[in-house]
Amino acid sequence: MFAATIRCSSRFLKSFPAANVAVASRKLSCSSHVACKKFNEPMSGHVMARPGGISTFMRLPFQETAEGLDACFVGIPIDHGCSNRSGTRLGPRYIRVESALVRACNSLGAAPFESMQVADIGDVRVNLYDLKNCCAMISEQYSDIIANGCKPLTLGGDHTITYPILQAIAKKYGPVGLVHVDAHSDVSDIMLGEKIAHGTPFKRAFDEQLINPKKVVQIGLRGSQYLKERGGQKWQYDQGFKVVPVEECWHKSMTPLMKEVREMMGDMPVYLTFDIDALDPAFAPGTGTPEIAGLTSIQGLEIIRGCKGLNIVGADLVEVSPPYDTTGTTALTGANLLFEMLCILPGVHYSD
Fold it and tell me: What is the rounded CA–CA span in Å between residue 133 and residue 154?
């Protein structure tokens, strides 16, 4: 892992009255049955102004491994699986920068930092000159990350990364359910002669039995297609995937759909992958393969929050390409969606 180590120095805390300070770790109330445990917290804006501090995700403490963590934020800075515009190798860095604005609880009362131990473990080592070798490196490192039950929340990176992550996930949990939010199906068998690219991860995952095809839902698919049958999605229908094209999402809340998804998945392990290009370019222009007429940011939030109750074992947010959005809005949206992924993990406490 590579990242700068963050220390929460006492000199910052001494500068503010105790009543106004959210300290870096909070001791939860104890009972006779539960031992006290200190959980990491993101650095508060009351302790350090938002533009300051080390740019870990949400300015959380950094640690080099996932040891002792219930969940972690981890980056995979690659874009050599891209077929159109590059730049996603910068996604993890810029998502972290924008995440300084995200606060510790969501608007529904989720309090993940009162519920579990979370840290930023930096970026995995990658090979930017050999994509196949890079995927092998990612899979090996994720096997270590999840070995003791830590749930990785990944900052991409192009969508190639989900394939090696699923290799590690399936090695531990067996074939998993998949909630896939995207403009594109990413089930191509070959792209320009290559089996591994950002348009092939779920064909590779299917071939290697990393996912249960009867427990796969793809939401938001759209755009012009190479084939005419079933909106260009015939292969997925034939394998038993649940396909929800964007036309079925227009002008609707995603809440009823996500109730169906929860019933479909049951209690099996589920992986959540969210390509930022699922959102309309009006909301997230900074991506490599934009498609018009997409989901709104509200619908994206409904989908993630609708995963609450699923046995989520990991998640990712991919395809943020900062050079194509100099305002930072796409990275900020990605940061918020990643935080919401943390909020729906099993075991997160909500206010009454």
Answer: 19
Q: Is 258 helix (H, G, I), strand (E, B) or coil?
A: helix
Among 132, 218, 215, 133, smallest CA distance to 174 is for 215
Q: Which residues of 166-200 are buried (b: 16+ CB within 10 A; e: fewer)?
A: bbbbbeebebbbbbbbbbbbbbbeeeeeeebbbbb
What does DSSP assign to residue 64?
S
**Beta strands in 50-101, from DSSP E residues, in sequence order:** 71-76
Find, among 235, 244, 257, the residue nearest to 303 by Cα: 257
The pLDDT score that the predictor gives to residue 157 is 97
Q: Phi/psi class of residue 227: alpha, beta or left (left: φ > 0; alpha: ψ in -120 to 50)?
A: beta
- The first and second tokens of residue 211, run together, are 């996912």
Q: H or E element: which one contains 14?
A: none
**120-177 residue pLDDT tens:** 999 999 999 999 999 999 999 999 999 999 999 999 999 999 999 999 999 999 999 9
What's the pLDDT band for 231 if we cut at 50, 70, 90?
A: confident
> H/E element holding 104?
none
Give burial (CB, 10 Å; 0-12/13-18/19+) of 211: buried
